[in-house]
């Protein structure tokens, strides 16, 4: 396979999965990790992809008139450690500042969502939001959108964090319903600025 073909394959995987590790790409393509790094270099230079702690992901599409680092839902600067990405069926990538905004945006465009990705609060690893556990109302202030929502990959970690800081552990569908109920159809996200 030629380098350009490998790059096209990598972008195809990113469109489907959101993010992927260099090791996983190496295994799938049956090439060395150094070859993968050489292959992704042009994609990085063209700002088509970005490096993440776990590998690479698609670069977010800029929204006209909004900072490249702003949440596409509440529009505030997205600089906290628990962002969410939504990948739409037409391959747009939306960056959201937190699980709260991610859930609200998901509910707004649910039929157009191909994938929703978040980060484990403790380990900062990328996980599918639909497989995550959500902790709401923990007594742990991040000065972010309200009601505050934290995500965990494992129920064990969510429950351990809950024991120390309180709150309620929910699955994805339950979290979507709970946020929807609390917002009572209001637009916006009750952010603390």
Automatic annotation (TrEMBL):
SMART domains in the cross-refs: HTH_DEOR (SM00420)
Coiled-coil residue spans: none
Record-annotated HTH deoR-type domain positions: 3-58
Keywords tagged on the record: Transcription, Transcription regulation
Gene3D superfamilies tied to this protein: Winged helix-like DNA-binding domain superfamily/Winged helix DNA-binding domain
Transmembrane segment boundaries: none
Origin: domain of life: Bacteria
UniProt cross-references to PANTHER family, sorted A to Z: HTH-TYPE TRANSCRIPTIONAL REPRESSOR YCNK
Protein name as annotated: DeoR/GlpR family transcriptional regulator of sugar metabolism
């Amino acid at each position: 396979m030629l380098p350009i073909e490998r790059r096209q394959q990598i972008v195809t995987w990113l469109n489907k999965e959101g993010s992927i590790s260099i090791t996983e790409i190496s295994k799938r393509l049956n090439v060395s990790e150094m070859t993968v790094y050489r292959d992704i270099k042009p994609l990085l230079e063209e700002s088509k992809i970005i490096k993440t702690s776990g590998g690479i992901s698609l670069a977010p599409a800029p929204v006209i008139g909004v900072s490249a680092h702003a949440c596409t839902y509440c529009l505030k600067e997205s600089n906290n450690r628990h962002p969410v990405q939504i990948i739409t069926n037409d391959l747009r990538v939306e960056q959201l500042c937190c699980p709260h905004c991610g859930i609200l945006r998901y509910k707004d465009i649910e039929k157009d969502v191909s994938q929703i990705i978040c980060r484990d609060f403790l380990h900062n690893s990328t996980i599918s939001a639909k497989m995550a556990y959500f902790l709401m109302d923990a007594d742990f202030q991040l000065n972010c959108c309200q009601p505050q929502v934290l995500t965990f990959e494992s129920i064990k970690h969510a429950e351990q964090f809950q024991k120390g800081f309180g709150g309620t552990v929910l699955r994805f569908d339950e979290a979507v319903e709970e946020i929807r109920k609390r917002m009572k159809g209001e637009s916006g996200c009750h952010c603390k600025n």
